[in-house]
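Below is our example:

___
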Amino acid sequence: MVPSASPHEHSPVDGVPPGARVVRGPVLRALGVVLLGVLVGFAAVDRGVAWWDADQGADGGEGGKLLHPLLGWIATPHFENAEFGTQLDRYGLRNPEVPADAPPDELRIAGFGASRLYGAGGARQEHLWNYQLEAMLAERTEPDARVLNGGVMAYSTLQACRRAALLLDALQPDLVFVIAAPGAQLMLDPSAARRWVRYGPGRDDYLPADLAEGRPGALLPAVAALHRFGSNVSGIYRRHRAKFQSNEDRPAAMQRWTVSNAPRSEAIDELLGNTLREAEALGALCKERGVELVMLVLPEVYMDSDRAWRGYLRANQQGGAPPVGTPRSEPANRLEELLRERGLTTWNFFEEMTQMGLDREAHTMQDGRHWSQLGHGIFARGLLRRLTQEGHLERLTERRRANPRREPFGPSPFAVDNP
């Protein structure tokens, strides 16, 4: 007589001897616990990445940027971030909202550039260079002076020149300066490298071209939704996209390239030429409108001391850095020469960056790259010193008094309700 199978005995299972007890519940529960732990751990790492990136000064993240087909992106007009006291005006400038009844004969200075000018790294808006310079000018000029901060996070010199050109008629400045830093970011060209595909009629209906490539048009809204979701909730995804775009813009051999007297490749020449031509075009527009333009040569942070510069050169030869032994002053001086060859006026801030390098910890935020209130003060005083040299300030003031504006400000080309 064959005994009947007990309730705990089952048909043979691969790898399990006949009659052995197979217990599935506890194993599945254990697997569930492991998977849950992996998900929780991934979420924790992702939040940590997001926190770290935010702590490095990403004021606004995706909410602070608005896609733009010519510039790649712009600072969102009227964006606010209470943590850093940020209140962008209707043009996306990081300064108080400009009043509609501003004095028609006020002196107006507008600066354009990237994150150091914008005030990244966690700097509060009221501590920035434009606030400090405006206060310094208030003690010296009649009528009042207004200083406008046109910095945008991660911008190149090429983008800054294009943005300045788009805002000339709206802002009607007396003096415009554009930051030209002699590193690889100088050459980024969003018209070629950061391409966007429009998939719908809405203001934000743009999708990076690499995400749209090879996908049917009907699927692009869903792809865009996933992209927005990842950008909004995942620090790892945001970092991946930033790295992908950066690598697409500049091959590995260009990642750490810096202007110098060393021979340049054809690829570098093309990218550098794009930037120089854009600066020259801005100069022509300014001349037509009676606006003075200065290309402000601002050395990179790793050029603020001999020690930092030597370390940079040794560590980045594979990334296109200049030869070891290149003088620290050479990049800024060579860039200044290239700009002057295009008929552009330059101010070289090598002295101010060297002053900050004497105590980088005091002059930068915790990230060691973006200026603290003290650093912004050194930059503002450097601007004031050059403005007062050779009668620049008096000449600009007298010219505006003789030719007051017919209207205080023009309409914004970046209105948030524009498609």
Q: What stands out?
A: The chain has 14 helices and eleven strands. Residues 255 and 319 are 5 Å apart (CA to CA). The first helix runs from residue 25 to 55.
